[in-house]
Input
Amino acid sequence: MAHSKKHSFHLISIVLLLSCYNIGCGKKESGTQSTIQHSTSVKFEGEVPSVHKKSMVDEEIEKNKKLLESNPNDAKIHYSLGLLYDEKAMFAESLAAYKKASELNPSMVESLVGQGNILNKKGKSDEAISVFKKAIDINPHYAEAYEGLGLVYIHKKQEEDATRSFRKAIDINPGLVNSRYNLGILYAKKAQFNEAIAEWTKGLEINPQKTEIYYNLGIAYTKINKFDDAISVWQKALTVRPDMANFHYNIGLAYKEKGDFDKAEVSLKKTLEVDPVFIDVHKVLEEVYRSKGMLGDADREAEIYKSKSSPHH
Output
């Protein structure tokens, strides 16, 4: 008798998503799915690409530099440059711009938070904590300072302090999705899945485009054996990102756990349509087919899995 192995679901590890604090900033939140995304080149008809063409961020940097020529003591311009340099991962220049903004306007909390975020990215945790606490001293109701502090505490593995910081950030500003996301991760790490589910559900109400929340929310539901809820969450995620193979795969695993092998087969095949090189799908399909008594199909999937997982493949 063939025994079907269980395929565990894994929570995505904490992702440090640093918010963009200026109004109108176009910085996108980064995704965290483990699926490899195969990039494709985009060609615009009638447009000749140029290696010398400046990006929008570069253009904004140049624009702000010119503004500084006539307004060298404008803290807001220095702050804007700090944001722009951060977006280009020019951390030294970003930190210098934020510091200049703070020098010109010591009560400018945003520039202190910017400094804290950069220091955290550079691994200077203690300096970052000091700067965030200075920002909180100036304005104890500035939620992003607590959010930044929580991220530093995560780096320092001070999870209780991180939890308190994220809670405080949310108390001040319930709309901080990143704080809710990371707080949910901290709850999940302690197996407090109902609390994690509450935070992630609220996070999706605020930002239904954040795919990593769908991923982890579904995982949390599987941890408390609510597979139907997990499936529902991942199906909703596919309306946002139908190209994410991991969602199809996890739905297939959940159906398999429920013993609904027909639906499991459909979802697993869909995974391969989206990502033909998703090798693990063949192993699970083998188990599904054996459970359905389709031994020929099971043997075929076993051979495919063996062939594609070979180090010489």
Notes: Residues 57-173 form a domain with the Serine Threonine Protein Phosphatase 5, Tetratricopeptide repeat fold (CATH 1.25.40.10).
